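Session log. Operator J.P. requested a structure for one protein chain; no other inputs attached. Running the standard single-chain path with token output.
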Amino acid sequence: MGVKFPRLHPLTWASDILSEGFCSEKDRYLFITGMYSLWLQRNGRRHGGDQPSLWQAVRWAVDTAHDLWQITGAPKLKPSAATRMHWRAPQGDWIKCNTDGAFYPDSGQGATGAVLRDQAGTFVGGRARWHRYGLDALMIKALACKDGVSLAKERGIRNLVVETDSQELVKMWESMDVQRACISPILRDIRALSAGFVNFSLVYTNRSCNQVAHTLAKQVSDDSRMGEWQSAPSCILNLLIEDCNHVSI
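Structure written below.
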């Protein structure tokens, strides 16, 4: 990363590194996240858990620090009820696949959710999957896109638009950025799957438009790792009704 670690006093380093002026805020994110990564590995090793490779641990620390810097780089205002964005229906004979993930950093695991809907907002299908290995939230969101594309392909859909609330993931998709070595293979898998559609696109959407997929991701766990629905489950009915009330093309 080209960051030089500052000289730390053995007794006061923990407070020194948090002090203003000791190092830049961006460097502080990287140092603290790296320490947190080491702490998680230490706890996992003591409890007999599976250990990531050294490369995976370093990559996780770098990616997480980068995400924290991006998230806090500019203040974000919560949308009010009056300005809340709503789900938009796809055009013509396209099917929209909203995807989202739920990442649990304490265990390094996560879940993905994907929901298919047509131009009237009608539920076409849904899937949730538990993933026992995930470096960070971005990786889980990438896996959610892949799971959604796989679901659409199995259903024989021809024209598909995939939505994710990760702007960073969409930028990587558009540029095929290889900076994130753990994400690139997933994007390549999505690109290979997308060749089976007549028309395909992966785009960004506001998080408030993605609540259905997020709710589906919460329906699975390490004890129940897979969920698939042909008709809308009760947990998302109210969300679907709300979206349908605001359907716009």
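Operator note: The radius of gyration is 20 Å.
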